[in-house]
Amino acid sequence: MEIIFLNLFNHQPLPTHISMNKIKSFDFKPISNENQKIHIISFSERIRRGENAVLRQHRANFYILLFITSGESQHLVDFNVHKIKKGDFLIIRPGQVHAFFPSKNSDGTIIAFTEDFLLYKSHSHFFHNNSFFLNELIIDEPLYLNGDKREDIYSLIFMIQKELDIAYDDLQESILQNHLASLLLNLLRIKRGDYPLFPKKSKEFLYALQFKSLIEKSYKDQLTISEYAKKIGISIRNLQRISEAHFGKSPKLMVQEFLLLESKRMLLDPSLQIKEIAYELGFNEPTNFTKFFKKFEKTSPESFRKSMY
């Protein structure tokens, strides 16, 4: 899968249809029934309904599963422009900045659901570990579904759509929950097959996923590595070893990289002042934020923002 990295230092502008603008954030909205916490819609219909918004950079507070069913297109996710084609699958996490590209010859299916959907009314051990499970499923490039695998996945999507078309009753939530779980588990099986060296689901692996999930939820609190280790219930030394083994990075670098990514996402919004971003990210002083940003990007937040125009 080819990924095109945006050049942030040669002042290369973003494509015109996704140029700098106030970053809109979207809450989950059911399409036909307000009781349904999951919905399915085609690419073409989604763009038709919200062209002015979805063709520009935006954020959603829910998960989005993208299945490309015909043609070729591109999709922007956190500064990476992914080339996507028929058979590809891409997952957008809550909070990621992304944008659709207009395309006349491509279409696909979008499944959207809230982060707590799999937990709702469930006593299943699997569902209550869904944050780990979803973290394992997520990769930073499209996953290609070929042949029979693709047909199996499309059959599961059809089951979700068929249930959504039925009049809502008190059983539908659980049925949709189980259909979605089955879809995600099958996608995970395909992913594990394509990535044979992916570590097995050991206790250490679960600790690694828990650490990654904690970073995404607690980065604004500027926690120390000791505090992360305490929340997970392991020693600092073990967290260091697990992070190096599963991510190839130290815990400190993991936290710093996510903080940097979130700062870039916020800098895309010209309505936010630099000092607002600094305080929102947990820095005591805007100057500390500028020093942090320059250390990793070799440029100031202001210069980075200008390079995005």
From TrEMBL:
InterPro entries: AraC-bd, Homeodomain-like_sf, HTH-like, HTH_AraC, RmlC-like_jellyroll. It comes from the Bacteria. Keywords: DNA-binding, Transcription, Transcription regulation. Pfam families: AraC_binding (PF02311), HTH_18 (PF12833). The keyword Transcription applies. PROSITE patterns: HTH_ARAC_FAMILY_2. One of its GO terms (molecular function) is DNA-binding transcription factor activity. Residues 209-307 form the HTH araC/xylS-type domain. This is Helix-turn-helix domain-containing protein. It comes from Empedobacter tilapiae.
